[in-house]
Design a protein that fits this description.
Length: 542
C-alpha cells in the first residue's frame, strides 16, 4: 500500500464521522510493541486508531525478511477486505507509539454497515481499495502459488485466487532455473504448492487453501440461517444480495468460486447499463463486493452434495460432511460444461483444454494458434478476445449457419476479422501433442496447430445432487406451475400451490440456468435470482 495511503484507502474523516465510527468500538490502551492483530488470526477485528500510531507489517517468511507495508496514525482505521469476507489476517498491525485504540467486533461492523449508509460506503471503498493495492508488492508473497504452467490443477488454484481477489503471487515452475528450483526445494510430485505465510501446502487444491485462509464454511451446530443460495453465478449473487439487503441472514455457497459461467466471459456488450461492454470478471467482482456490503457470507469452494428436510428445517450437506441448516434454499447451481467425445480429451484437459477465455487463460496461449469450438455468443466473444490478444483462431461450428445461435453483431465481427477462420458444418475429430496440446484435427480442414482448445458447447444442469425434487427429462428443475402433478397432495396439505420459482419441495426454490424454461442470459439470471427472493419472503411468512 505504500508509506502514504491515498484518500480512498485512508479517507480524512470529519469530527462527526469519527465520533459515529468510534461509537461502534470498544476502547483500550496499547503500548509500543503490542499487536492489534497478527497474520493468521481468524475473524480479526477492525482497529480504530485514536491517539496511538501503528505500522502494518508483512511478517518475515523463510526466504525474505519482514516488510513494513504502511504506517498509520490518529483518526485512521486498520483492516482490509478480509474484515467482510471472513478471511484470516495475512498482515500484522504493530503498535509503534502507545495510546488509545478502539476495537470494532465483527457484529458491530455489520451493524455499522447496515445502519450508517455514509460510513458504509466510505469503509467499503477503502477496504476494497486496500485489497486491490495489496495484490501487488510485498503482501502478495503471503500466498505464493507454484506449479507447472500447463497444469489444470495449477490453473484451478490461480482461478480461485483471482475470483476471490486474493493477494497472491504466481510462480511457474517451468520458468525457474535449476538453482531457483533447488532453493524452493521443489519436487514435481508435490506440485502445485501453495506457500501460505511461508509454509508449504503440497499438492494444493482450492479447498485446502480456502480452509487455511478461513474461507471455507464455518457455522455453529445450532445455527439456522434464513436463506442458503447454492451457486455463485449471476442468479445466485443476485438472490444473495437481494435476500441479505432485505434482512435475511444469507449464506452463499459455490463449488468453485463466485462467478459461474459469466466469469468465464471475456466481454458482455448487451448487458443493461454498460454501453462500452463489461468483462465477466469485472461484473462478478463488483457483484461479489456488493454481496459483502450487505452481509452475505460467501464460502467457496463449498460443494453441496445433498439437500433434505429434517423436521421443519432444510439441511444442505457439503462435500466435506459439514451441514448448513436453513429455513429456505435457492438452487442456482447452474450447469456443468459439456465435453467432446474424444479419446484424448481427459489427457489434454489438464494441459491445453479450457472452458473460459479470460486473461488468466489467455496468458497460457498468448500469441499462439488456438481452436474455439461452439456456435453461440460465448464462442464468438472468446474468438474475438483471443484474436485481439495475438492468437490466430480457428472457430469450429457444427451448424451450417453461424447466425442461427449467435448475435448479429458478433457474426459480423467474426466474418470481418482476418485473424479468425470460421469452419461451419465442422467437427473436431482428434487431439495431438507430446505432453501439452499441439494440434487439433478438424474434419473439414485436417490438422491445425493449436496451443489451446477453448470449448463452448453448452452445459448440463448441475442437479445430480438433488434428490426428491421434480426434474424434467433433461435434468432441469421444475418450478411454480410447472411442478408435476404427482406432488399435488403435498401442496393440498399445505393449503397452497407452489410459488413462482418454488420447486416440488416447499421453501426450496430454483433460478437461473438450472431451472427448466429459463432464458440462458446473464440479465435474465439476475432477474430470476432477485425475483425468487420475493417468493422466499412469502414462503417464510406462511
Amino acid at each position: 500500500m505504500g508509506g502514504n495511503l491515498d484518500p480512498v484507502m485512508a479517507p480524512t474523516l470529519t469530527d462527526a464521522q469519527w465520533e459515529r465510527l468510534c461509537s461502534f468500538g470498544t476502547p483500550m490502551d496499547v503500548e509500543a510493541g503490542d499487536y492489534l492483530f497478527r497474520s493468521g488470526d481468524a475473524a480479526y477485528e477492525m482497529a480504530l486508531i485514536d491517539t496511538a500510531e501503528i505500522e502494518i507489517v508483512r511478517d518475515s517468511l523463510w526466504w525474505v525478511g519482514e516488510a513494513v507495508i504502511t504506517r498509520m496514525g490518529p483518526r485512521s482505521f486498520a483492516g482490509e477486505l478480509g474484515l467482510l469476507n471472513g478471511q484470516s489476517a495475512f498482515l500484522s498491525a504493530r503498535v509503534t507509539r502507545g495510546g488509545r485504540v478502539l476495537r470494532v467486533p465483527q457484529a458491530e461492523l455489520r451493524r455499522l454497515m447496515a445502519e450508517d449508509d455514509e460510513l458504509c460506503d466510505l469503509l467499503l471503498h477503502s477496504l476494497w481499495a486496500r485489497r486491490e493495492s495489496l495484490r501487488d508488492g510485498p503482501a502478495a508473497l503471503t500466498l505464493k502459488l507454484v506449479g507447472a504452467r500447463s497444469s489444470r490443477d495449477f490453473l484451478a488454484l490461480r482461478r480461485f485466487a483471482e475470483r476471490f481477489g486474493l493477494a497472491h503471487t504466481v510462480v511457474e515452475a517451468d520458468a525457474l532455473d535449476p538453482a531457483a528450483a533447488a532453493h524452493h526445494a521443489l519436487d514435481p510430485e508435490d506440485l502445485p504448492i501453495a506457500f501460505i505465510q511461508g509454509e508449504p501446502l503440497v499438492r494444493a487444491t482450492p479447498g485446502m487453501v480456502a480452509e487455511r485462509l478461513g474461507l471455507s464454511y464455518q457455522g455453529h451446530a445450532d445455527e439456522i440461517v434464513d436463506l442458503v443460495v447454492v451457486g455463485g453465478g449471476p442468479a445466485g449473487l443476485a438472490a444473495a444480495i437481494y435476500g441479505a439487503s432485505e434482512g435475511l441472514s444469507t449464506v452463499l455457497l459455490d463449488a468453485v468460486a463466485p462467478g459461474g459461467q459469466a466469469a468465464a466471459t471475456s466481454r458482455i456488450e448487451n448487458f443493461l447499463g454498460f454501453p462500452f461492454g463489461v468483462s465477466g470478471d469485472d461484473l462478478i467482482g463488483q457483484a461479489s463486493l456488493q454481496a459483502l456490503k450487505f452481509g452475505v457470507r460467501v464460502y467457496a469452494p463449498c460443494e453441496a452434495v445433498k439437500l433434505e428436510r429434517v423436521d421443519d428445517v432444510l439441511e444442505v450437506t457439503l462435500a466435506d460432511g459439514r451441514i448448513v441448516h436453513t429455513r429456505s434454499v435457492i438452487v442456482t447451481s447452474g450447469a456443468a460444461y459439456r465435453t467432446l467425445a474424444l479419446a484424448e480429451w481427459d489427457r489434454f484437459e489438464r494441459s491445453g483444454i479450457y472452458y473460459a477465455a479470460t486473461p488468466l487463460e489467455v496468458r497460457q496461449v498468448l500469441g499462439s494458434p488456438v481452436v474455439v469450438v461452439g456456435g453461440a455468443n460465448s464462442a464468438g466473444q472468446a474468438s474475438l478476445y483471443l484474436a485481439a490478444n495475438g492468437c490466430p483462431v480457428h472457430l469450429v461450428v457444427r451448424g451450417g449457419d453461424l447466425g442461427s445461435r449467435m448475435s448479429t453483431y458478433l457474426v459480423d465481427r467474426l466474418v470481418e476479422d482476418p485473424r479468425i477462420q470460421v469452419h461451419t458444418s465442422s467437427r473436431v475429430v482428434g487431439l495431438d501433442g507430446e505432453g501439452d496440446l499441439q494440434r487439433v484435427r478438424i474434419d473439414t480442414a485436417g490438422a491445425v496447430d493449436a496451443r489451446g482448445l477453448f470449448c463452448f458447447i453448452g452445459a448440463e444442469p448441475a442437479t445430480t445432487w438433488l434428490r426428491g425434487i421434480d426434474l424434467d427429462g433433461d435434468g432441469f428443475v421444475r418450478t411454480g406451475a410447472d411442478v408435476a402433478a404427482y406432488s399435488i397432495s403435498l401442496w393440498q396439505r399445505l393449503g397452497r400451490e407452489p410459488l413462482p420459482f418454488e420447486t416440488s419441495v416447499p421453501r426450496v426454490f430454483a433460478a437461473g440456468d438450472v431451472r427448466r424454461g429459463s432464458m440462458k442470459r446473464v440479465a435474465a439470471a439476475v432477474g430470476e435470482g432477485s425475483s425468487a427472493v420475493a417468493s422466499v419472503h412469502r414462503a417464510l411468512a406462511l
